[in-house]
Amino acid sequence: MIRHSEKEFIFGMHPVMEAIRGGRQIDRVLVRQGLRGGQYHELMQVVNEFAVPWQVVPQEKLDSITRKNHQGVIAWLSAIEFQNIENILPGIFEEGGEPLLLMLDGVSDVRNFGAIVRSALCFGAHAVIIPEKSSARISADAVKASAGALSTFQVCRVKSLTKCLTYLKESGVKAVAATEKADRTVNAAILTGPLVMILGSEEKGISRELLGLSDAQVSIPITGAIGSLNVSVSAGIILYEVVRQRGVRQQNLR
């Protein structure tokens, strides 16, 4: 059984509710399958009021985290403070910048997530956008995998990636999806201007809804025997190409 530090989570009905009401950054709340009663309904009111992600799990999952009396409820604490993309984007435009954002659809591996954030910080991206569900838990391991980048980088957690992408497009941000099925390679695409790059999990890729909303789709040219790359490696390659193209454009404007 994996041992978790009690600094990573809070357990018990009242402690979890008080932590949420007190403004603690909660990654997600785990609720035992079949849990009912007055306190359960109060808990649901609190998590919904404060828009805290939650999921139903079996008793065994909770017991694997702690053997103490968790009362069927455990809250994972977030190692970072989540930001609001609707607060970030206007500020970038007001400062005369060109937004460079990453949207991660279903990237749940902690090490991949940390490595992506590290690359995003190195290449000057402004923020990473993740969904409330089906995303990596922002733990101490994620911070370590990011080489500390998560301590300073902006991560935005949204209820719906589809609605968020619609907002970005309406704000003048071009949406480009990275998928191995695309005919156009990343170096042949125009990646200048306000941009959000969409990357999916290695298992399922990008959802059809997000692909349908994208303005363009690109792939990374691969000549070896293996036809795909780790998502964090893909993110680094694509971010490098974005920065390269922006640099070339700036030189041409001089």
Descriptors for this entry?
alpha/beta; 4-stranded mixed sheet; 6-stranded parallel sheet; about 40% helix; 60s Ribosomal Protein L30, Chain: A; 9 helices; Alpha/beta knot
The count of domains is 2
Under CATH, the topology of the largest domain can be stated as: Alpha/beta knot
Return the structural class. alpha/beta
Return the string of H and E elements: EHEHEHEHEHEHEHEEHEH
The radius of gyration computed from the alpha-carbon positions, rounded to a whole number of angstroms, is: 20 Å
Q: What is the CA–CA distance across the termini?
A: 60 Å
Assigned CATH superfamily of the largest domain: SPOUT methyltransferase, trefoil knot domain
For the sheet with most strands, the description reads: 6 strands, parallel
Mean pLDDT: 90
Strand content: 15-25%
- From the spread of the alpha carbons, the general shape counts as elongated
Fraction of residues in helix: 25-40%
- The helix tally amounts to 9
- Biggest sheet strand order reads 7-6-5-9-8-10
Broad CATH class of the largest domain: Alpha Beta
List the uncertain runs.
none
Question: From the 3D coordinates, which CATH architecture of the largest domain would you assign?
Answer: 3-Layer(aba) Sandwich
Q: How many strand elements?
A: 10
Briefly say what this structure is.
By secondary structure, the protein is an alpha/beta fold.
Written description of the protein model:
The chain has helices at 13-21, 38-49, 59-65, 85-94, 110-122, 140-145, 161-170, 208-213, 231-253; strands at residues 9-11, 26-32, 54-57, 73-77, 100-105, 127-131, 155-158, 174-178, 195-200, 216-218. With 254 residues, it is α/β, with parallel strands linked by helices. It has 2 domains: 9-77, 60s Ribosomal Protein L30, Chain: A, CATH 3.30.1330.30; 85-253, Alpha/beta knot. It has a 6-stranded parallel sheet, with helices on both faces. Strands 1-4-2-3 form a 4-stranded mixed sheet. α5 links the parallel β5 and β6. The longest helix is centred in the C-terminal third of the chain and has 23 residues, at 231-253. The radius of gyration is 20 Å and the shape is elongated.
